[in-house]
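Structure first, sequence second, as always.
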């Protein structure tokens, strides 16, 4: 189940909103924790905030080292917002530190073909995605939103 983590391979989970990407990623992260791996989950916006705060308080190198040392880093909501120059540089540092050393699981509503554009800078997009995509497994989920399905079931139960 965690062989891809042992091999420092990446997993890219894509699909529409509500398709179960975060649920699957958290289940994989929980399984990894049970097997003794170090795991950290971030929504990209919160990771960016943590990096910005670490730069301000002088703990940036310590945070980068901690992220590099994780067996599995899970980043959710990849590509929802355009990245600024500082964020692109931060992500480059993270991906470079983790390349062939640790596993990264990325979750995105965007298909991987659109990730290049979402990064913004061509040179950094090439460098980040080269480290992320070329040793990865890809899972593209399809289907209707689980939230919509669960809401429909709840409404039926209330009618009975």
């Amino acid at each position: 189940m965690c062989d891809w983590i042992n091999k420092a391979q990446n997993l890219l989970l894509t699909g529409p909103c509500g398709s179960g990407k975060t649920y699957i990623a958290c289940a994989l992260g929980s399984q990894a924790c049970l097997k003794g791996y170090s795991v950290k989950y971030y929504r990209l916006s919160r990771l960016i905030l943590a990096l910005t705060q670490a730069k301000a308080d002088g703990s940036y190198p310590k945070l980068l080292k901690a992220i590099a040392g994780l067996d599995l880093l899970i980043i959710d909501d990849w590509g929802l917002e355009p990245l600024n120059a500082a964020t692109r540089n931060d992500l480059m540092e993270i991906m470079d530190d983790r390349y062939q050393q640790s596993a990264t699981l990325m979750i995105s509503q965007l298909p991987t073909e659109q990730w290049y554009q979402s990064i913004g800078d061509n040179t950094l997009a090439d460098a980040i995605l080269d480290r992320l995509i070329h040793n990865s497994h890809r899972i593209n989920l399809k289907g209707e939103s689980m939230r919509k399905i669960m809401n429909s079931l709840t409404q039926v139960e209330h009618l009975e």
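Margin note: The CA atoms of residues 10 and 134 lie 9 Å apart.
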